[in-house]
User: Fold this.
Amino acid sequence: MGKISGAEILVRGLKTQGVQKLFTLPGAEFLPVYDACLREGIEVIGGRHEGAVVQTAEGWSRVAGEPAVAAVAVGPGHANGVAGFATAYAECSPVIMLSGTDESGLLGKGARQELPQVEMCAPLAKWSALVTEARRIPEAVATAFEMATGGFPGPVHLSLPADTLEQPVEEDAVTFPPPRWRTPGGGRGTEDGSIEAALDLLATARRPVLVAGITAFWSQAGAALQSLVETVKVPLFTVERSRGLVPDDHPYCFGDGSAIVNPAAQMIHYADMVILLGDKIDCRFGWGQVFGKAKVIQVCPAPAEIGRNCPVRLGLAGDARVVTEQLLAAARQRSWQDRTSWLETLRQARREQQARVEELDSSLETVPHAIHIAGAVEEFLDADSILVFDGGDCSGWARFRLKARRPGGWQASSVLGHLGCGLPYALGAQVASPRSRVVLLTGDGAMGFSVMEFETAVRHRLPVVIVVANDASWGFEEYVQRNWFGPDRLVATALGNVRWDEMAKAMGGWGELVERREDLRPALARAFAAGVPACVNVLTRSTPSPLTQSFLRQFARRRAQIRQAAETLPAAGEPAAQAAP
Assistant:
């Protein structure tokens, strides 16, 4: 057999792990890699900014339910890519970022565009490494996939020097490990005694809820989860990646687990038992305060996370899907009754939210409100549609009104709140699900971060529909400034009234401006019918969403606490008060 280069080894290694798409912004080090992709049948999708490239890969991953690969150039390209790497870290997404470097022998000597790439990614990565031997690339790639998908998923980084990718190796000296991350039944269950103990607790609960979190999605627990709630007759909420794992219109699913955007979720505080499936107890759950006095059963793939920040009655260490299947099998051996009063309480909260939505929607304002945008978009969605959210008030109102329909169909930077990721997420989602209707609802501030990726959509023929709620301001910050300092003390919150629709047309897509509420639905109909990337630019009245109002209250409480603490400090030069012995 002949020799093959490190670039060919890399591409074959990726293909062995199941990779069919490579997201990138071209860099000189990876030119041999792109050439090898042509031979091996891996599609290369090029973006306009490395941060967006990594986020596009993440958006693809969130819909495909598999790890994604992005390649960025040395130094500045890597630095730009770290922004996307950070969202994958915060959102627990299995993204593998490959970065080029100068020749390995020059590293540490002030090489061309050299940065400490491995060290930059290490705090955010499940694994960050430099690969300097071409024959070791396949094992590094296999390990990267295994690390990215194990436990709580997350990003992995590999730096690959230019000489490593050019290095020739005897073909018969290279072995390609099988995709260990795809091992059937590879998820770990929990002890049978813990399963029975969990069901014993559930059987005595009067007001139980089940909250499905991040790893419930990545473990593909949806089918088992739906059967479980139907069997034990327990109301379900979904958060983050698990939105849509069981559709919101299912009789036992009560939508988003965030009490800020879903009044029904406020009832979680009054539950007497909470089963948290596949997630951590962190700020999203008020470090456990959201659960009130409930007994908590935490199912988690990372044992160290069980009971961290909040005591739990029972911890079940294991894969979310496998443990759900164990619970389901054991639950089917018992009889379960509806908790009629508790379910009716939740249904009433849901009816009240719907009434509030209808009240807002029926307002006679001419200038569109973000709630009107969400309602108009709803009319064009089906069970396979994918919703992407970006920005503050726009996404806050949209989450208040819209429903999650399918796994991977509800995308946002919910944990990190990273502005500008919406358009890249939408592109990745459209690549992963070409026949789905992908809709991005974004504010004008967030749109400005990654608007040039619209050209990426045009170039790759990705017919995403973008709806911009354009109030020409940083709405959240303006609202806070008005309340804290007064309307005459606004600083750096006003934005220009950008014609996003004209920009879309200039890049080869569809664009339309909407100034009146009655023109919104016809404009959306034309955008969806265009068959090309489309942008509907809606001039919108700035209105703080429930999310913004909640954050303002939180910040106000913190400011008051800080001021109160400051008032108790001794004046300069005075001795501190001594505690009594």
Remarks:
- Residues 363-559 form a domain with the Rossmann fold fold (CATH 3.40.50.970).
- The chain has a mean pLDDT of 92.
- The CA atoms of residues 386 and 438 lie 5 Å apart.
